[in-house]
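Session log. Operator J.P. requested a structure for one protein chain; no other inputs attached. Running the standard single-chain path with token output.
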Amino acid sequence: EGAKAALIGANGSGKTTLLRIIAGDLAAHSGAVSRGGSLGVMRQFIAREGDQVRDLLLSVADPRIRRAAAAVDTAEAVLGSGTDTKAQMA
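Structure written below.
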């Protein structure tokens, strides 16, 4: 329960492939893989093309945080537009 393990090896030795097999992302070509309990996985590449860290963090944030970020985006758009001086000064 709660054991930690390290997987160490040279570049290209199959560490990521082994972890992807254990996680169920890939099928093993031979042999068998079994695991008990649960497994948490943090992918190396989890964002969409062009996303920023901000976008990734907001995608898992509390709804109140997402609403606040949307309000900031709106304020930045108004202030950056340069066409609505009255709104910029409000």
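Operator note: The radius of gyration is 22 Å.
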